[in-house]
């Protein structure tokens, strides 16, 4: 079943979990588009595992709806929370200008707390910015498994050592919006995502990444297992930063981190969205399902 505010009624949920879930879904106010709302897929009887799917920057929960359905059909409960200030009906909204690292961390913590009431074993799958949040969750929350898909841990063409300074300077400067595609502009598809991004929002994402790297140098992972999935022909995020984070984690959490890299995909970053890259999804989804299930 899919859920939105007021229609998530499953008998085995505790009152506390039901209340938390209803409160979370109430964040989907009238300015949020139908395709931008959080998604809940719950079985009528208790199951052992729930998967939380964290979508990418400027996207929406609908990005993960097909993958979520495949997990649901395999017996998992599925929760796809809407990231803060995402999913607005107006695709040219300026809501992202006010996005903060704290809002994203709070949302992730709430999603984890809700997921613990949906099934005893919690897995997070995060893509891009959702991967940044998944990495943060792996550092600060006890989870069964966290799978980071093309995680945003830096921009591909910016050296990792320079990124924090650039992020700080960006936050000091006025916010600007830039088109993802300067030719297609507002016509960029799919319609459930924003066609432009906020420079301040990107810098706020860097703040989360900075926290993840700092924690990885001092503390072991709290998640039982982490899998980092990358595309060898990545075009946007920094694969070298992902490898550096894996090395830090492996030092203090030996045996808890593994990697997988797609070597035969075409050049792309978005390997999750069926409406944008159906050919990539046909290759990626089966492997991700295998990683989730093993």
Whole-number radius of gyration? Answer: 18 Å
Query: On the 0-100 scale, what is the average pLDDT?
Result: 95
CATH topology call: Rossmann fold
List the helices and strands in order. Answer: HEEHEHEHEHEEHEHEH
* CATH homologous superfamily label: Alpha/Beta hydrolase fold, catalytic domain
Low-confidence stretches at least 5 residues in length (pLDDT < 50)?
1-6
Assembly form of the protein: single chain
Strand content: 5-15%
Structural overview:
- By secondary structure, the chain is α/β, with parallel strands linked by helices.
- It has a single domain, classed as Alpha/Beta hydrolase fold, catalytic domain (Rossmann fold), CATH 3.40.50.
- About 35% of the residues lie in helices and about 15% in strands.
- It contains eight helices and nine strands.
- The strands form two sheets. Strands 1-3-2-4-5-8-9 form a seven-stranded mixed sheet, sandwiched between helices. The protein has a two-stranded antiparallel ribbon with strand order 6-7.
- α1 runs antiparallel to α3 (about 100-120) and α5 runs antiparallel to α6 (about 200-215).
- It is globular, with a radius of gyration of 18 Å.
Observed structural traits:
single chain, alpha/beta, Rossmann fold, 7-stranded mixed sheet, two-stranded antiparallel sheet, 8 helices, 9 strands, globular, disordered N terminus
